[in-house]
Specification:
- This protein has 5 helices and 7 strands, in the order αββαββααβββα.
- By secondary structure, it is an alpha+beta fold.
- Helix 2 packs antiparallel against helix 5.
- The longest helix is centred in the C-terminal third of the chain and has 19 residues.
Length: 182
């Protein structure tokens, strides 16, 4: 654990303010759920809660199945990072932060099918300059909330995504959203 040197007092209602600098660094916004943990030494640990993260193993298996069936790169994200990935770029995507553009597409519940030349093409990983030829992005909606996305990618310029890939991503997003509701 890293010490910040910041000390806060608990108010009369038992509340503690998480400093703005920490919220900005960890991308915690008003209304974001936080999970509370304690350890044996009496420390309280706050962790940003990811509903998609609850499906970790299941999401990985789903991504593996889609990648094996389609031959494409598959990634599943929450609103902060990729929680599952499969295909040739698995290591480059897993646990990486998503871009603000992808987060915006999720929040706006926007589905995207684009080639790298299209104006609606979205960079998906902030520190990644990998050249993807095509992408399909679908937001995952659970109980009315946009909680993440499913992303299909191709690096092969000869491969063009169409209705089949769009429907696969749509079905996967719907299915994962429904799994969160149970």
């Amino acid at each position: 654990m890293k010490a910040t040197g910041i000390v806060r007092r608990i108010d009369d209602l038992g509340r503690v303010v998480v400093p703005k600098e920490i919220r900005r660094t960890l991308r915690i916004r008003e209304g974001d759920p936080l999970e509370i943990f304690t350890d044996r030494e009496g420390e309280i640990i706050l962790k940003k809660y990811s509903p998609i993260g609850e499906l970790g193993l299941f999401a990985k298996q789903y991504a593996d199945s889609l990648a094996q069936t389609t031959g494409h790169i598959i990634a599943i994200s929450d609103k902060d990072q990729f929680v599952a990935a499969s295909g040739s770029m698995k290591r480059e995507l897993l646990s990486k932060s998503i871009t603000p553009e992808l987060e915006q597409a999720i929040n706006e519940r926007e589905s995207i099918i684009a080639s790298k030349e299209d104006k609606n093409f979205v960079r998906i990983v902030a520190d990644d300059d990998t050249d993807y030829s095509y992408q399909v992005i679908w937001p995952i909606i659970s109980e009315g909330d946009a909680i993440g996305s499913i992303v299909l990618l191709s690096k092969d310029p000869k491969v063009k995504f169409g209705d089949v890939e769009n429907k696969l991503a749509s079905t996967a997003a719907y299915f994962l959203g429904r799994q969160m509701e149970q």
